Prior knowledge:
Elements: E1 7-11, H1 18-31, E2 35-38, H2 43-49, E3 56-61, H3 70-82, E4 87-91, H4 94-98, H5 102-113, E5 123-127, H6 135-148, E6 152-154, H7 166-176, E7 181-185, H8 191-199, E8 204-207, H9 210-215
Helix pairs in contact: 5-6, 6-7
Amino acid sequence: MDISSYIDHTLLKADATKEQVKELCQEAEVNHFATVCVNPDYVPYCSALLKDTDVKVCTVIGFPLGANPIEVKVFEAERALEEGAEELDYVINISDVKNGEFDKVKEEMKRITALKSTHSDLIIKAIFEVCYLTDTEIAQVSNIAKEVGIDYVKTSTGFGSGGASEKAVEIMKNTVGEKVKVKASGGIRTLEDAKKYIDLGVSRIGTSNGVSIVKGEVSTGSY
């Protein structure tokens, strides 16, 4: 099993420095991680650093609360694509889910997914923040993602009250089947953690502990 190819090597801290982001990109290139995942402001920098590598640039949209209007998220996504992002991890509006306004959740997914019409290689991941959702709500938004044709459903931002859980991943995977992939993130710090979720069927692991994971070491990283 090539763990490296599953990893979105992540640095989303508010105080991330250019030097830290450069190191992130270097680590991703050496270890052949799938992507680096950074805040939007660092997309042009990472895109330049990774231009001639096999590592893609991923950024976050509506992060970390998901509470921005749809139009703001779409603008943020379009700007990120213009600046070199190849994958987008966007946070759904969690309040809409809690309010039972699933039509709004679906409309937002449609608007974001529509960007694929002009960016055919674009990968879009919808972040659910499962720590705030019931099992039924996780299944409902997973089903919407399957209907809309989003590429991935993702467990967490890493900034909520909890991260990935086996139960949430199982619900997501059972709902979307083979039509949509699953990304586990939040609290994945060891090789054993990563293998556990891969065995459950996830296709990506979001973590700031990628180097420690591939080395089989224990990390104290938060994401």
